[in-house]
Every structure is written in structure tokens, then in C-alpha cells.
């Protein structure tokens, strides 16, 4: 029997042990119960999806290194001999992924690397693996498996066209040994986004065309999760789930009988569709994570024209969505070229006046594969390519209108402002009122 191991490497800030925001978490010690919705534990959907293509006759082992005790890492990762090791990388896990791949290769295991980071920087990843998968992996991975079986696998497999999502089989959630350790379980229904934000790497790596699975496929995945998890909560990984209104409404109607809580990323445009908002509520949507990006019109104009037009109605649209008892988490990015030191107070003032249920902040990050990375690289403004620090909390470039330290400290200050006990207790009170 052949054996395959599927590994999601640990992040550089595993369990906050090296987290730049450690002081914030430390201050909230004793109040962390109020933060459980903010601390996400989600398994790798990419690996669980690829596992569905591996023959049932193979033994398959799924490993999330973040959840391995440090003193047991070597035994769990390298204690068995495998025929194939599949390693998925994002930026902040890439360096650790290379270490794991090198170790497997030294043991004689055929090693495959894929994921966003490896797809963006193939020349960096290739020396660490026997085969590199670039771009959307489902179709080319099937080609790899056929070649591997025939003894002639290639060094590189590159997706040349968008994957037909209607042909993707159900993810292998049953490979998760202890599903209850995850407070959110991943599902995806669509790929692509109509917007053109230059900080996003998805359009260049995974194509911009907006596609979706069938409703039946998505419901099958959700039912599978419900069969293995005692308290399922669905996290849609889609970049922008609700763009196709017709498909979205069909999906939400099918989700209503399941009664399973869920969340997704979407854009502020949903505020204009009351039928959709009503279905979101009926289907037990518990959080809408909306990329607001900035509250400065001059900055937004350079980010995305559609969002620029919507910005003037942000407060009204947020209130409209939340009037349906749908919590909005506003996602903000700080450090655009038009941002100066006033950006921090401006965001705080907006949040206070808009009545957002929750918010999250990121520092602008030049992710490899994005147009932003190409531009800042050409301008000589990238000050670090330590990928372990590409976490959306570390400053890795020289801002235009402030120094890097000012941006870094400002980000931490604004996090601390909204992660304080008072804010957490207010949210807990709001949750209790809803349950009552």
C-alpha cells in the first residue's frame, strides 16, 4: 500500500509565541474567553481538496503542524516513511515548508510543493522539491498522479486555464483526526473576484474569472462537516462569496434547512439587495467580513474604482446590513501611499461613527505575486523578504508618507485600542442580547 502525507507547515507566529502583538494578548490574559471568535483554528482546505484525488487504496495522513506539540514534531512528521509528501505554502509558512520538504527528500520521500507562495516564486521553491505545482492545483495534480504512477513525473506542473469547479470532488474532511479542535471548518463555493486591488495576489496566480461550484457540491461538503464535527461552524474561504446574486440566493436557500452557523468574505455591494440580506439571516450567517480597506477617498481611488464609488455610502450601507441583524466585520488596511500619520485617528473616528460590530486591521503587505509587490520591488521600497514576517502585521516596506516604525507602532496602537477589555465586554454583551 502506498502512503501519502499532506502537510500544512506551522506559521511563524505559532500560537502567538513570536507574535508581534504578544503584548496585546498578554494584557488580555484572563479575558481570552471573550476572544474565542477572534482566534481562528481552521484546517487547510487546499490539502483536504487535493486528498480527494489520491486513490482510496492509498494510506493518507493529514498533518497540521500548528497543532502538534513542539516536542512531538519530529516523531509525528518524520516518524513514518511515505511515498509522497504534499506541502502547501503561503508566505509566512514557506520557509518552514522548505525545511520540511528538504527533510522528506533526505528520507527518500517524493516531495511536491504547491500553494500561493510557491506559485508566485517558483524559482525559490523548486530547489526544495521533486515536483512543483504552480497555480490552481486540482487538474494538474491529477496529471501528476498519473505520471507518478507511470514512473515519469515532471519537475513542474503549471495550470494553464481556470479549473472547472463543478468537477471538484468533495474534500476529504474525514482525514481530520480531531475535528473538534477547530472552531471553524473551511468550505469554498467560488473562485475569483471582480475587483482589481493591487495588493491582492489571487488574480495573477489563480485567474480573475469568477466561477462557482454547484449548490449540491457545497451542501455535500457542509453535510460532511456536520457529520464529523460536534459543533460545526462554516468558514467560506472564497475571496468574495456573494458576487453572483442568483447563485448566492440558491445556495442560501439550500443552507437554511441545515441550520449551521457560518461566515464569509464579501463586498459592501450586498447592502443593495434586501432579498439577499434576508436569506443571509435565515441561513444563519453570523459574520460578514467586508474589505473596506480605507476611509480616505483619495487613497481608495488608487485601489479600486468600484470601491471608490461605494466609499461615500459606507456608513449607510453598514447600517443597512446590520439592520437585518447581520454582524459586519470591517477589514482595514493601513499603509497605502496616500496614508500619513492621520490615518490611525481617521479609521478610529470612522469605526466609532459607523457602528461596526467588529473590525480587523492589517498593514499593507507586498505579497509576492501581487502587482503591489512588483511595483514596490521596482521602486526599491521593500525592506525585508523574510517571508516568515509576511503576516499582514509586520511592516516589510518603506511607506511613502511616514517611516516604517511609525506605521508599525500605529498599527499596534490601533489593535490595542479595539482589542481592549471594554470592547470585548461590549461584544459579549451584544452576543448575550442576541441569544436572549
Walk me through the structure:
- The protein is of the alpha/beta class and 436 residues long.
- The protein has 2 domains: 156 residues, Rossmann fold (3-Layer(aba) Sandwich); 252 residues, tm_1862 like domain (pyruvate-formate lyase- activating enzyme).
- It is built from 18 helices and 14 strands.
- The strands form 3 sheets. The protein has a 6-stranded parallel β-sheet with strand order 2-1-3-4-5-6, sandwiched between helices. A 6-stranded parallel β-sheet has the order 7-10-11-12-13-14, with helices on one face.
- The C terminus is likely disordered.
Number of domains: 2
Mean pLDDT: 90
DSSP summary, beta strand count: 14
Rg computed from alpha carbons, rounded to a whole number of angstroms: 22 Å
**Proportion of residues in extended strands:** 15-25%
Low-pLDDT runs of 5+ residues are 28-37, 432-436
Distance between the ends? 54 Å
Biggest beta-sheet profile:
6 strands, parallel
Determine the fraction of residues in helical runs and give it as a percent range. Answer: 25-40%
For this structure, the CATH topology of the largest domain is: pyruvate-formate lyase- activating enzyme
Which structural category do the helix and sheet elements fall into? alpha/beta
Name of the top-level CATH class of the largest domain: Alpha Beta
